[in-house]
Design brief:
It is globular, with a radius of gyration of 17 Å. Helices cover 27% and strands 27% of the residues. The strands form 3 sheets. It has an 8-stranded mixed sheet with strand order 4-1-7-6-10-9-8-12. It has one domain: PK beta-barrel domain-like (M1 Pyruvate Kinase, Domain 3), CATH 2.40.33. By secondary structure, the protein is of the alpha+beta class.
């Protein structure tokens, strides 16, 4: 496992549906060490703090292995790292392998996996394909967010090593499916909410569904 590129970006204004909005999805690769703080990478920020960023979405990682699919099937042409808005373009960190709560050593940092990414319309805006976010979600390979356990510097070429595996073994892809596709898999949701590293936002959503299910069963 390795970091192929570190990418950052500041908000910029773009036109969309006749209005001007601010987005920081336009990330650019940077060379040399980049400091990773509790909330974000140096030189990076979020335009919409309600939907993006914060402790549990401080760093976004996306696998370079997924690039070929979108370049070929959607005829997007050659895409450089950061094209999907990721901070870390990775190799060898598939959503089928990486689990919520796993902790990785990357450069000087310790980073904990907290949740999958749910794409919004800004991904389509970034790649000039309005239909892309829905297809991206359906692919189930959307990358994942990480919490900064220990700040430090990272840079392209850094090796990624496993510091700690979460014992529950609930993969990023499984949790994505629970949120968006397997919405009645209550056993799966119970496994997910039992993982301490799961982000509060996703935990609250699963807890609400489980509560609604128990209430419905009690009324039946």
């Amino acid at each position: 496992m390795q970091i192929l590129s570190v990418n950052v970006g500041l908000p910029r204004e773009v036109e969309h549906d006749g209005r001007t909005l601010s987005t920081a999805i336009f990330k650019e690769p940077v060379s040399g060490p980049v400091h990773v703080g509790e909330m974000q990478l140096e030189g990076d920020t979020q335009a919409d703090s309600k939907s993006h960023g914060g402790v549990y979405q401080a760093v976004y990682a996306f696998g370079h292995e997924n690039y070929a699919t979108w370049q070929d099937e959607y005829e997007l042409g050659e895409l450089k790292p950061g094209s999907f808005g990721e901070n870390l373009t990775t190799a060898g960190m598939s959503e089928d392998i990486v689990c919520i709560g796993d902790i990785y050593r990357i450069g000087e940092c310790l980073l904990e996996v907290t949740q999958p990414r749910t794409p919004c319309f800004k991904l389509g805006l970034r790649l000039d394909r309005a239909d892309l976010p829905r297809a991206f979600l359906r692919s189930e390979y959307t990358g994942f967010y990480l919490r900064v356990v220990e700040p430090g510097h990272v840079q392209s070429g850094d090796a990624v090593s496993v510091e700690q595996r979460d014992p529950a073994g609930v993969t990023v892809r499984q949790v994505l499916r629970l949120m968006h596709f397997d919405k009645t898999d209550h056993a799966g949701m119970r496994r997910a909410v039992a993982v301490p590293g799961l982000s509060p936002r996703w935990r609250d959503e699963f807890d609400e569904r489980l509560g609604d299910s128990e209430e419905a069963q009690a009324e039946a």
